[in-house]
Design a protein that fits this description.
Elements (H helix, E strand, L loop, with lengths): L20 E2 L2 H10 L3 E5 L7 H10 L5 E14 L7 E13 L4 H4 L2 H16 L13 H5 L6 E11 L7 H4 L2 H6 L3 E4 L22 H14 L11
């Protein structure tokens, strides 16, 4: 296994459909960047009331174990029988531990937090930070929690295959003649930008950074844009 791969452990080893597994960082991080929504899980001694979540984000203690899951659905696989239907997908699970902002690690803690917020903003829409009202106000910073995760283990699972049926159904020519099989691809796209009611930007043209964002989003949807770093 190369240094570009995560070591296989009991935590990240894919046990079912092992042939779909991937452990290389480039693949895993590209999936994490392509996913529009990430699900975060952590263990709380108090269960999961809102107060526990709020406290978790505010304290950002060192060493809290966390798991982040990213999933992209790329297509529906239609086979001869519903039992054999499947989904084309890319999914990644990243395990790690939190570590807080500190003078020992970051030097200027407030500058490090602002830089993190800028990176988060750019991950959504590149160059948006510079084209909006910044820096955040003191009230905005106080109400915003930032969790920093050191990724220690990860793996991905990918299904890019097509229709697959058992030998009995495949030998049934009448069945194959009357049932359509194949893949229905799924893509998430951006549409034409719609200005707000109070937008007063001079001119009718959409800003370049928004136009470029649409192009980058289309590339990212295919897993072709960048990769998250090992510390996100």
């Amino acid at each position: 296994m190369s240094t570009e791969d995560f070591d296989k452990t009991t935590l990240n080893t894919v046990k079912r459909y092992k042939h779909r597994a991937a452990y290389d960082r480039k693949t895993i991080f590209s999936i994490a960047r392509a996913a529009t929504v990430l699900h975060v899980a952590f263990v709380s001694d108090d269960g999961l009331p809102r107060s526990s979540v709020s406290r978790f984000f505010k304290t950002n203690e060192d060493g809290n174990q966390m798991c982040v899951t990213a999933t992209c659905v790329d297509g529906y696989i239609l086979s001869l029988t519903p039992y054999s239907h499947d989904v084309q997908y890319r999914t990644a699970i990243l395990h790690g531990s939190t570590f807080p902002f500190s003078e020992a690690y970051d030097g200027d803690v407030e500058a490090a937090k602002l830089n993190a917020l800028m990176l988060i903003t750019h991950a959504v829409c590149p160059d948006r930070w510079e084209h909006s009202r910044v820096p955040p106000t003191a009230a905005e910073l106080k109400s915003t929690g930032i969790i920093r995760l050191r990724i220690e283990s990860a793996s991905a699972k990918i299904n890019a295959g097509g229709s697959s049926d058992n030998a009995t159904d495949m030998a049934n020519e009448d069945l194959k003649a009357r049932v359509w099989t194949g893949v229905l691809p799924i893509r998430t796209i951006t549409l034409e930008p719609v200005p707000s009611e109070y937008n007063q930007l001079v001119g009718s043209a959409v800003p370049d950074h928004v136009v470029n964002f649409r192009k980058l989003f289309a590339e990212k949807e295919q897993g072709g844009v960048g990769a998250v770093t090992e510390t996100v």
